[in-house]
Specification:
Helix content: 40-55%
Oligomer: single chain
Shape: elongated
Number of strands: 17
Number of domains: 4
Low-confidence stretches: 1-16, 92-101, 441-448
Strand content: 15-25%
Radius of gyration: 37 Å
Number of helices: 21
Structural class: alpha+beta
Strand order of the largest sheet: 3-7-6-5-4
Length: 563
């Protein structure tokens, strides 16, 4: 038997020690037929054990001293700052035994009060000397404790090496000598013991697929033991109709939220108390390793989060897999989907800000799905109508202005399979906005519903198209020759004919409106347009020419800002 005190002082910290109190608790279980009495003055770690020397003992603070109560019974004062385990021997008669034991305890209490001394008295009923038996028992506690400390050190070393969850599971398998599977809160398989394969065919299928089946998840969710597991931090032995064999399971918590489960399979040997302690330590080490990843650090533990993250990271290759994963999540995805990407890059001093912004968004849109990814808070809206209403947009703009944030909105899409493609589009929109709108509120990119804080992908599609070809070819080759001629003339003569042409086209060739935007007289504007036509021989009544000119101006603006 080995009882080791395991203390989770705070989240993620692993601490193993043998204390005076745990020695007493272990003795109380092993020697339950004997009478025990204790006086705990000061909580103290125990580092060694010695017998009391009748000729005098140099007492040390963290050593437990074992001896007969008669050794110290006549002392006027017990030693200070130490730990004593004293044996009280009976005389064979039950009443006299009980009386003698109580008398010994009371006599010790009457001795002059010690300073920080802890005392345990164990009663031996038959006048037998059980000091050797007790000494060996406590020595076994130390041996078990040393083994636990060595295993803890190996687990911590696996964390320090930073080789990921699979390596930590590999070390855990080596220590426990049992197969291990690690799953997250959405029942996705994150790692498993390749050095000690799982023998359960059902779990081998889950490992191969990378996630548990819908039927299994539903069965497990109604398992009372699992419900108990979710409510406390102690490992639980679980049996399940859906899977053969006994398993020991421990939840993994990050910020008091369940991030996953570590599952130990019984395999050839039964579970021991040491296994329970080790799986608790393994759980904490895995939690620390998972915290290194933004997803687990900022996750709220909802099942849809992992599905969306897997879509973004290309961890799901087929639509069939997506449908199966969607079935496992207690939510649905409709056909009027919009993705909002809120940029948090410069407004994120710590991960608590993610939680703060996410809760605000969920208050505004209670049925939204929100995840944190690559410095963006991604908000997936599933709307009953095809278009975003003014009420939604007003709420969103107010939130962005109050928090000094800005965001981009995707086009409507109807399949969750498009989630990554829509993310790349809104991400590009924010990047284009930084390039094209910074310090230029009247940019030609600021179209449609765009505000300073909220951008729409619809407004930036031409720039997204242009950026697709940038680097693959010289974009200037696609500019209208008249635009290139005006740009060269302006550079040589210090004029602004190209700007005049741009505003003239942006205002649908309205001389008065274009003149107001450039702060010049309408006659001046009219003369400049005539000059431009004379120089370039442009036909501004031809729709194809107008389109080519506008595309050319967009290319020039993009290249000017991007370089």
């Amino acid at each position: 038997m080995c009882i080791v005190h395991y203390n989770e002082r705070r989240e993620g910290e692993i601490f193993v020690e043998l204390t005076f109190e745990t020695v007493y608790n272990a003795l109380a279980k092993e020697f339950s037929d004997n009478g025990l009495w204790s006086h705990l003055e000061t909580p103290r770690e125990i580092c060694g054990i010695k017998f009391i020397d009748p000729n005098g003992t140099d007492y040390q603070e963290h050593v437990l001293y074992i001896g007969d109560i008669n050794t110290l019974e006549q002392a006027s004062k017990l030693p200070d700052n130490t730990n004593l385990l004293l044996i009280s021997r009976g005389d064979g008669e039950e009443r006299q035994e009980d009386f003698r034991f109580r008398e010994d305890a009371q006599s010790l209490q009457r001795i002059e009060k010690t300073d920080n001394t802890n005392i345990i008295i164990v009663h031996s009923k038959e006048k037998q000397d059980i000091s050797g038996e007790i000494f060996n028992f406590i020595q076994d506690l130390f041996i078990g404790n040393y083994k636990m400390m060595n295993n803890s050190a190996e687990l911590l070393n696996s964390l320090i090496k930073g080789r990921g969850l699979k390596y930590v599971v590999k070390i855990g398998t080596k220590i426990l000598n049992k197969p291990i599977v690690l799953i997250d809160s959405s029942f996705k398989v994150l790692a498993h013991s390749e050095n000690r394969p799982v023998q359960d065919p059902l779990w081998n299928n889950y490992i191969a697929n990378g996630y548990c089946s819908y039927e299994f998840i539903q069965t497990v969710k109604h398992n009372q033991t699992l419900q108990k597991l979710n409510k406390n931090n102690t490992p639980q032995l679980i049996t399940c109709e859906a899977s053969q064999g006994l398993k020991m399971v421990k939840n993994i918590k990050i910020k008091d939220k369940i991030a996953g489960y570590v599952i130990i399979f019984e395999d050839e040997g039964s579970f021991s108390k040491e296994d329970s302690k080790l799986i608790s330590q393994l759980s904490n080490v895995l939690a620390e390793e998972m915290k290194k990843h933004d997803y687990y650090k900022n996750s709220t533990g909802l099942m849809y989060e992992n599905l969306l993250l897997d879509l973004l990271d290309d961890n799901i290759s087929s639509e069939q897999t997506v449908r199966a994963r969607v079935q496992n999540t207690p939510c649905s995805f409709g056909e009027n989907l919009y993705l909002i990407a809120i940029s948090l890059g410069q407004n994120l001093p710590n991960h608590y800000c993610v939680d703060y912004y996410r809760e605000q968004v969920k208050t505004m849109f209670p049925h939204c799905k929100a995840i944190y990814y690559q410095d963006y808070l991604l908000v997936l809206l599933d709307l009953p109508e095809e278009k975003m209403g003014k009420e939604i947009l007003d709420k969103l703009i107010n939130f962005l202005e109050n928090n000094g944030l800005w965001a981009a909105v995707s086009d409507k899409f109807s399949s969750i399979m498009e989630f990554k493609r829509q993310f790349l589009k809104v991400k590009n929109t924010l990047e284009f906005g930084q390039l094209l709108l910074k310090g230029k509120k009247d940019s030609s990119a600021n179209m449609n519903q765009d505000t300073d804080k909220l951008l729409f992908y619809e407004s930036y599609k031409p720039y997204d198209l242009i950026s697709t070809f940038n680097g693959q070819t010289d974009l200037m080759d696609y500019c209208h020759s008249g635009v290139i001629e005006l740009q060269f003339y302006d550079q040589e003569n210090g004029t602004a004919y190209l700007r005049c042409l741009q505003e003239y086209l942006n205002t649908n060739q309205n001389i008065n409106e274009a003149a107001e935007k450039l702060y010049i007289h309408r006659n001046t504007m009219r003369n400049r347009i005539s000059k431009i036509i004379d120089m370039t021989e442009l036909n501004l009544e031809n729709s194809q020419t107008i389109f080519h000119l506008q595309l050319s101006l967009l290319i020039l603006e993009y290249l000017r800002k991007a370089t």
